[in-house]
Specification:
alpha/beta; 6 helices; globular
């Protein structure tokens, strides 16, 4: 499955019972809503595929793992309905990951910001390079990370979430 590069890309392949999903976007592998929706849909399909035992989730390139939500889309929100749809993008993805019947392994090769941190926390297990970093950039913009905080809390606990809050 692919999308054009303007709205990001999403590739899935199955080999030896391992489904590899690779996502990407020219802006540090950020997630416009369309890409979030496509990833959630792909996880739902793979969850029910008997040819899949494990899902490997990774991003394109060797720098940023995921820059989180698309700030261009955030700035374009004009109505409450648009806001709900935007913020539900990651929430629906996290729900698809939690309900997935297959083990989801994340591969993190660089920085993860905002929703990217939530994406890591929603994986069942994660491998990261030593130089990988995480931060909640929303806080420095005056936005609370209310969609990703429950996922981080569930995975890492209150102390880890507090530490991320204190050093955005």
């Amino acid at each position: 499955m692919t999308t054009d590069r303007q709205n990001g890309s999403l590739y899935a392949k199955i080999e030896n019972k391992v489904a590899t999903i690779e996502f990407g976007h020219p802006n540090a592998n950020s997630f416009p809503l369309e890409l979030l929706e496509r990833l959630a849909q792909e996880l739902n399909v793979l969850s029910n595929n008997p040819e899949v035992a494990i899902i490997l989730l990774k991003s394109e390139g060797d720098r940023a793992f995921c820059a989180g939500a698309s700030f261009d889309e955030l700035l374009a929100i004009e109505t409450e309905a648009e806001g709900n749809r935007f913020f539900n993008g990651f929430a629906n993805l996290f729900l698809a990951m939690r309900e997935c019947k297959k083990l989801i392994i994340g591969r993190v090769q660089g920085k993860a910001v905002g929703g990217g941190v939530g994406l890591i926390a929603a994986c069942d297990y994660v491998f990261a390079v030593e130089a990988a970093t995480i931060r909640l950039s929303e806080l420095s913009l005056g936005i609370g990370p209310f969609v990703i905080a429950p996922v981080i809390l569930r995975k890492a606990g209150q102390a880890a979430l507090n530490e991320l809050f204190m050093a955005p």
